Amino acid sequence: MTMPELTIQAPDGGSFSSYLALPAKTPAPAILVIQEIFGVNQVMRDTCDWLAREGYVACCPDIFWRIEPGIDITDKTDEEWKRAFELFQAFDVDKGIEDLKATLTALRSHDASTGKVGSVGYCLGGKLAYLMATRSDVDASVGYYGVGLDELMGEAGKISKPLMLHIPTEDGFVPKEAQAKVHATLDDNPQVTLHDYQGNDHAFAREGGQHYDPKAAEQANRRSLDFFKQHLS
């Protein structure tokens, strides 16, 4: 396994870096890993490495580059949380999706890729994974505890490729009424699979995080791998 960086050309000029993990055997399907609010940090790099071990080309682009390139913080201190929320507030979602689509294009044509590309995102990235399903031709998307999805249900009619969402029922950032709106809109959509995790809080799959639940994380990750195997092979 090698971990080079991949530089992506932004559609409106400039470029940004991404962490790239390659599987032992290529060409392979690719997965676009969409960061949380802490940047391309060790958790995101570990996620890419895990997916590479599972046989995928995995790439996590620096979507905060327009604010400040190279953000790499943790969830361990109040100061880092404060910075993370500042970045979240400053982040331009529409520009971010354009940058993710540029990364998608780069992965489709990468020498190590078969051309099949999925996306997986966490927290802010979970929101963006949903938007990749509505605004791009990505082959399959998975969102973990996406925030603000209830405000984006007007785009649900644009979902044309498979989408899976992992929803913790006790998400401190996603009220019950917001979860209910997502279910009401998406439950009957044949392209969408929703999984609820009873009693789990936001970021239950973030290893080392305050709300990490190994059992729920393992279940969600297994579902995600099975989903990608089905739709990216």
TrEMBL record:
Keyword Hydrolase among UniProt keywords: yes
SUPFAM superfamilies: alpha/beta-Hydrolases
Molecular function per GO: hydrolase activity
Keywords: Hydrolase
Domain Dienelactone hydrolase: 16-232
Domain of life: Bacteria
The protein's name: Dienelactone hydrolase family protein
